[in-house]
């Protein structure tokens, strides 16, 4: 015993933390799988791999990985479009890309992605997730697109009001959300039980005790649910799947590395090594792909629970994977008792937490451009799709940065006699060129003009060419040509 304590001095703390994380992860793994349109067991498989594979690898010592609500919408669309067998190929390719990016030391570049784009991405996912799970809570089929899900809610509400079964199902879902919101206020030992687990247990007990007519989780068995992609799947893939793979890679990597930064702020232990963490996520997703399971990311809910429970080393996240494996192997039939509207309620709550209401309000007060990027990204994901919505957000972020970097000041001094003096300073780029040319072309053509460019830090090729052309053709015959004063600034 003393030898074990000396080798693992924090074993007691890590063991206790692993049990807490297991209890938090269990309902979320099952709920994410069901909402993604795949067998519930595949969510457990991803959680197990997140503990036993990614958990053993270096990167972020206290961060916990598994299936994430943030990828639910994208997984559902991929399975609906390409079929469940193709999911393993997509996740495998995602993992290999993450391994390559980590090996090329690109992990830190994900930290350069605008926070507004990431929060907008999560907000868009949250909106679609909430809308879709409201249908699931009522036991009704959900429309395919995000817009149709939201626009169809009034009609779904009318249908639910006319059905006793739908109202009973909604009551279970609403009760689950209420328990999760109120559970944190529970005093004593009860408050230490994760709210999601307590909500699922209570919902299961109520539906069994009162015979509430609700759908429950379908159980296949762990080995039956695991379906590695065969050679025939690789041969039948469409080229359009490449965009889905890129979307999986971008979103899973960004969410994991942003989560790592957040977890680092919660503890005083070793800091995250971003390239190694990206490779750890890649290794986990590669294994998940081989097993035909859900994609994984680092999950802030499980990670923060791990830190708050007193975890000290990566042993806690490895042990949580062991507990998930034991549950999946010994008690799989217990999943069949869980009501689907209870899982829908958990995901409605998770989707709500993905929407950064406070961040939007704070950004609107201080950085309205960033708030606009966040909102446009979220709306684009709802209206178009995940991949194109994120690209729209990234494009807006780059355009905003370019516009702000292109700050050029134009000052005209006309004393009524002698040459008109014009001073251009700052950064002259094509984005500011229309305004600069409008001012220059309004100058009198029958007076000498001196254009001083020595105050410029940067001038792009388009601006340099346009100013040269203007100076060559501005003056009327008999008037001294424009006098240019240039400094050796960059014109790349």
Automatic annotation (TrEMBL):
Region Disordered, annotated ranges: 470-492
Domain SLC26A/SulP transporter positions: 11-377
One Pfam assignment: Sulfate_transp
Chief location category: membrane
Entry annotated with the keyword Transmembrane: yes
Transmembrane segments: 15-35, 42-62, 82-104, 116-140, 160-183, 195-215, 283-301, 321-350, 371-396
Record's protein name: Transmembrane transport protein
Topology in membrane: Multi-pass membrane protein
Keywords for the protein's UniProt record, in alphabetical order: Membrane, Transmembrane, Transmembrane helix
Keyword field contains Membrane: yes
Source organism, top-level taxon: Bacteria
GO cellular component: membrane
Xref: InterPro entries: SLC26A/SulP_dom (IPR011547), SLC26A/SulP_fam (IPR001902)
Subcellular location field: Membrane
Gene Ontology biological-process annotations: transmembrane transport
